[in-house]
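Lab notebook page, bench 4
Experiment: in silico fold of construct C2
Operator: M.H.
Input chain length: 72 residues
Purpose: comparison with the prior construct
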Amino acid sequence: MRYDWILDVLADLQTFARSNGLELLSDQLEDSRFVATAEIVALHEGSGENHAGGHEAAAHAHIGGVGTRARA
């Protein structure tokens, strides 16, 4: 998928944030990953493309849950 790189960048940023005690930023980046994944899936579904993969499966599991996670 041509958008995998953005998901990888967001994951790397989240890992950095978590490793450096930036919990709120880490949570926000997790939400951003879900939003990006959902949007990418929607683009592919709208274009008629059918790509099976972990990111799309994750998006379907998390669509609607963005921003609903309780924060400390």
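Observations: Helices lie at 4-19, 23-47, 54-62. Residues 7 and 36 are 7 Å apart (CA to CA).
Next step: discuss at group meeting.
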